[in-house]
Amino acid sequence: MIVKILWKSKTFRAVRYNTNKVEKNKGELVKVSGFGALQGLSEIRPGDYINYLSSLASRNRRVVYPQFHAMISSKGRSLDKGELVTLAEGWLEGMGYGNQPYLLIFHKDTQNNHIHMVSSRIDLEGKKISDSFEKIRAYKVLNKLIGNDEKHAAEKALTRALQYSFSNKAQFMMLLERQGYALKVLEDTLDLSKYGEKVGSINLTRIEQKIARFSPDQKRKEQLKQIFAKYRPITDSRIQAIREDLPGGEKGKVIFYNSELSEKLSSSFGLQFVFHFKGDKPPYGYTILDHSTKEVFKGGDIMSITKFMETLRQTEEVKTSIPISEGIYENQFSPKEEMLLENPSESIFPADEVEMHDCISIGEFSLDIDISDDIDDEQILGRNRRRQKKARTNTR
């Protein structure tokens, strides 16, 4: 289950986006609330909703982006239309939009049922609905509605991680990061947080005691070496850099790397690969989380990173969304607290489901574009012609 606050906009173009889905039979307008006398009309056009919301926005000109557009998605068909409507109503109430005019549009054109919510950030009195810690509150409200207890979940995550065999503290932390936790090492504890809030901790002594008892499974290590040797020659091992999506279809920094070989070994043998890299440079190493035997291996102990990637030339392919290999640590939330979306263990939104791509992302990204006046090409070429004693063909 995820919630996503979508693009900011100076106008209410989200209304058009969603009504176009309805017209194409890819969506259904399931609820209209708070639009006053407008709801009494026998036939309402999208422009009527836009005009009503725009009239509210005009009461507070200081708010540059008055549109509020959000979405809640279930995994697959786990929630039907009615359940999503109930969930959306409760979520809007918890976020301060319960008395606002809003539209609920159920989308059925992807593999995951999801519902869109469109409203105004300006209320009837011209006041802005609070957006303080909005992204953190979004998940807090959702988790409360669906009965998720983050502190209890953190305790379970620690218990599961301690069931693994690992040789150092970094490997243990990796197990928790794969579950979406941000970690902070203090003097004698390791703190876990999610959505900017501390949800658990563990004494470092327990981790050190576990490391002291570590004994590598040599039999499993030899088995993995044989598996790698078998599949590497027949599976494409070219590393692909997966980058974050930015507004306007741009691509940002590298989020992680994978390959067909790592995906094959993940799906077939319960292995999860974590490639280590800096910036845009290719991976310099990797770690293997063996969920079948609950052990963490240094990738180089099984096969060197150079050999693991050496078939054909190394290339980089940018994709919009690639599943991270699944295991018991299927990660449904991003380890970075400032991000609201899940770190997808499976693709929640297919590549063709681009949400309001022409608006401005609410994410923590900015594009600084410096456009300076260009010197006219003809002026430059004209000077070159004069130097060559050729006739000038234009004047300014």
TrEMBL record:
Pfam families: Relaxase (PF03432)
Highest taxon in the source lineage: Bacteria
Ranges for domain MobA/VirD2-like nuclease: 17-145
Protein name: MobA/VirD2-like nuclease domain-containing protein
Organism per entry: Pedobacter chinensis
